[in-house]
């Protein structure tokens, strides 16, 4: 069998740590290096950086080129940011050095949405260097787009699509909570939305364009709405206590129009402890089509674990792919890659 | 834009008729010819054969080579049979004439299961002729395999998979009902199972091997069980009346073992009017993995409409595919192909 698949990890936040731990457990793949943006952590052992409780003998770099030189990776997993503008410098350096890239930056799920120019540039650069670049993650990247697209396969006609993901922010830290306006007054929430400090979900436009691009719809415009979810009871987590009347989260939704009609509606309220007010978490997809399709599950697919799994499961797909920029919708059907990761590479079955 | 995609239809049963009607409605594709096995229908107008209420000016052929010569198809849709042994002569003729094939024969969903030798032969033949061959359909082909595979993408580990499809046979005719033992005594049902006249579902082994092949499991053995669903109340459809004590359908299930443990369980009871005894129809998939995944919907995705849609939606995928034999699991993510079918061909966007 071929040599171990060498992976360079970018980012040692919550997602980066989870990806590192999975890579350490997974046969056929080697965590060959790690890069982080925080200069004060240069030289720290990666085992320490990810809270493993033992050293790995791999230094955390804050110089990406140096970490590429040392790790000689086949593929890099980028878990450093959300936006394409912020992601592109690292991607560009990786591609220039002949490294394929899997990014969990939300806007990389369908990067032509946020920036057609950067997406085009990444595509040609990757093609010229013979590597593949993919954005993935639970959302965008799976529940509100790839899964919708897959389910649409049974439809000969579609009038509209509605998908909803209700999650609980309890496991998350203050930076995530603050981006959803948790703990604010409703007035401060609305000001935060206006000023861009209350962000809500990043990825609706990416999911909508991924769906529309696959099934063949031209979208005219997308309307997004961010409304405060005002707590009716006290909602407490390890990180935050939300009193009645304060904001427990952000009810963020997006409606896409085609020929003047709303055709894709995505709804993603993110809040702490929705169950305290009788709202169950879960995922649901409804296609008003021929035939109709409706699937739902509760609780929601755990977002952190799923994003970690997707990032690693897509390694063989990215290494098998044609050079260039890809989305989850144009690669072969994604799936779990159990056992040795190398046996999922084309022409490498043992 | 390129010329219309020319499709030759094989079979004018319930599925063939539905596929023909969809092709007639669909922009960018042309029903270029039709072939049926029943000699007594030679020369009948296809519009008459499919009960369209108007003539189409296309004769139904019972000589496949003649219909290929006349239709000059890009792709053929085979809706004539269930088993690979029965499907292969037609597929072989089509491939020999350079025609790609989409088959809804159940065993063609993952043909290496029923016959590795025939699957190999089809693969090399298709490669040598530069065409692609695919099996599809709602089940096998989608609900109990492709959708399971897709959902597995969010899992870093999987302990077991359970998927269930509960449907209502009320829309179906006597041949389908008889294959499920509907109307028999429980005793006659068991004799029918032993003699092979009560078949149950065709496709469990195909679905299991498609899932296992994708995620990387070696399956040791599959145990199938066919139990009579005995009516507790009178169950009546347009075709049949089942009295209490008689068989309303077949509870067919399959369990696949790996390393001595049951790892994939597929359950597909098929019966008339389950709602009369409080059983709701529906589809459900449960993955005991990291993270766990559970999605369900009721009623079940309508099997006939879905199979018809899949057969047509996969036309661009098959024409885009590399030559050879494919399964739903190794092609790009399937999806609805709305609007002109030609715009979904690679390099053919208008």
Summarize the structure.
Two copies of one chain form a homodimer. Chain A is of the alpha/beta class.
Describe what this molecule looks like in 3D.
- 2 copies of one chain form a homodimer.
- By secondary structure, the first copy, chain A, is an alpha/beta fold.
- Chain A contains 10 helices and 15 strands.
- The first copy, chain A, has helices at 14-25, 46-49, 64-71, 84-96, 116-129, 146-151, 174-179, 186-195, 204-215, 303-320; strands at 5-10, 29-35, 60-61, 75-78, 100-103, 132-135, 157-168, 221-230, 235-236, 241-242, 247-258, 261-271, 282-290, 293-297, 324-326.
- The longest helix of chain A has 18 residues, at 303-320.
- The radius of gyration of chain A is 20 Å and the shape is globular.
Instruction: Give the uncertain stretches of chain A in residue-range form.
Output: none
Mind telling me which CATH architecture of the largest domain in chain A this is? 3-Layer(aba) Sandwich
Number of domains of chain A: 2
Arithmetic mean pLDDT of chain A: 96
* Gyration radius over CA of chain A: 20 Å
Class of secondary structure makeup of chain A: alpha/beta
Number of helices of chain A: 10
Query: In sequence order, what are the helices and strands of chain A, one letter per element?
Result: EHEHEHEHEHEHEHHHEEEEEEEHE
Using DSSP, what is the number of strands of chain A?
A: 15
How much of the sequence of chain A is in beta strands? Answer: 25-35%
Rounded to the nearest angstrom, the distance between the terminal CA atoms of chain A is 6 Å
**Shape verdict of chain A:** globular
Indicate the CATH class of the largest domain in chain A.
Answer: Alpha Beta
Instruction: Walk across the major sheet of chain A and give the strand order.
Output: 3-2-1-4-5-6-15
CATH topology of the largest domain in chain A: Rossmann fold
**Largest β-sheet summary of chain A:** 7 strands, parallel
Q: Largest interface: which pair?
A: A-B, 56 and 56 residues
For this structure, what is the CATH homologous superfamily of the largest domain in chain A?
NAD(P)-binding Rossmann-like Domain
**From the structure provided, what is the oligomeric state, counting identical versus distinct chains?**
homodimer
